[in-house]
Amino acid sequence: LGLGLLLLLAGDSVLVSAKRFLRCELARKLLDQHGFERSLLSNWICLLEHESDLDTGRIATNPNGSRNYGLFQINGRFCQEGRRGGICNA
Questions:
Q1: Which of 34, 41, 59, 68 is placed for a possible disulfide with 73 were both Cys, Cβ 3.0 to 4.6 Å?
Q2: Is the pLDDT of residue 84 over 50?
Q3: Domain 3-75 classified CATH 1.10.530.10?
Q4: Distance, first Cα to last Cα, the chain
């Protein structure tokens, strides 16, 4: 799974309005549009449910003050809120 895809999915909330997926809806999207392996799909859905509640707009603040963004809860050092930036300039 490439970093670009992770950042794209994590940044969905910046590019378009936030969306909270249903389990089956997100599973289908990850399988059909992003090439996730079917055998690992249930693991990914479980991870995303616990990290972001399947919400692309999820922003969580860590104890150190940094923030995590999107479905995959990518840390703010890799991306910036509302603009390009961070280590990956994403």
A1: 68
A2: yes
A3: yes
A4: 17
